[in-house]
Amino acid sequence: MSYNILYLLLFVLFSCNCSSMSEAQKEGEPPTGRSESLPVECVAAGNQQSCLITGLYPLLAELSSSLQSLKASMDQEQFRRKGTVRAGSHRMEHNIAFAATLGNKGDVGPFSTNFPLVYKKVFLNAGSCYNTGTGIFTAPVKGVYFFSLSGHNKTSKPMALRLFKNGEPMIIVYNHPLTDAGIRYESLSNSITLMLEKGDQVYVHLLANTWVFDNTDNLTLFTGHLVFPL
To answer: Which UniProt keywords are given for this protein, alphabetically ordered (predicted)?
Structure first.
C-alpha cells in the first residue's frame, strides 16, 4: 500500500510542476524548473510540458525497479528474522531427551501382575518430561519421538519388558528361560519411533511372573528424545 501512495504523490507533484510551466508560458514569463535540462529541440518548439512528461518515464521506471528491489530485500530480511525466531524457539522449548536406568537393584520381580518400572538413576532429563517418581514420560509437544529400552537377566528366568503408549502396548523385550544350559546373564533391547500428541504418556512395565536385573553397570535402560516437533 505504501508504494502505491508514493506513486500517486509523484504523479501529483509532476502534474503540478507541468501545470505551472504551462501557465508561465501563457503569461510570457520564462519557464522555471527543469527547462535547462530539456533537449534543445523541445525548448525551441516550446513544448516543455510534453518533453518533461516524456522524460519522466525512464525516471519512474528506474524508481519503480528500485522500489521493487527494496521491497524484495525487506521481505527476505523479514522472512530471515521470522525463521531465526522459530529456530530459536525450537532450540529453547523443544530440547527434549531423557535416559535412565533402574540402578543398583539386583533382581526385580516377579510380580503377580504387570509392574510399572521406575528408572531412578537418571543420566539426562532435558525438558524435565520424564517423571522420576512414576517412570512415565509425558510428551510436552506434538511430534515424532524415538524410544529405546533394554533389559538384562539370568537365563534361568524369563524376562519381559513392554513399552506402552497411553495404555496401548507398543513393543516388547522378551527373553525365554534356558533349562538345558548353565546359568548366564543376557541383555536384549528394542526401539521404536512414535508420533505423540501433547500430553501422551509412554512408560515401561515388567510383565507378570518375569524378572529383570540391574546393578551398578546400568544394564537396564529406558531412553527417549524428541526427533522433531509437528
So the answer is: Secreted, Signal
Question: What Å distances lie between residue 117 and 4, 32, 109, 204, 212, CA to CA?
Answer: 67, 93, 10, 6, 10
Backbone Cα Rg of the chain: 39
In one-letter notation, the amino acid at residue 3 is Y
Give the three-class secondary structure for 195: strand
Tally of CB atoms within 10 A around 76 = 10
The whole-model pTM stands at 0.61
pLDDT, tens digit, 9 for 90 and up, residues 9-27: 555 555 555 444 445 455 5
Distance CA 152, CA 162 (A): 14
Question: Could you tell me the three cell numbers for 128?
Answer: 524435565
| Largest Cα–Cα separation, the chain | 124
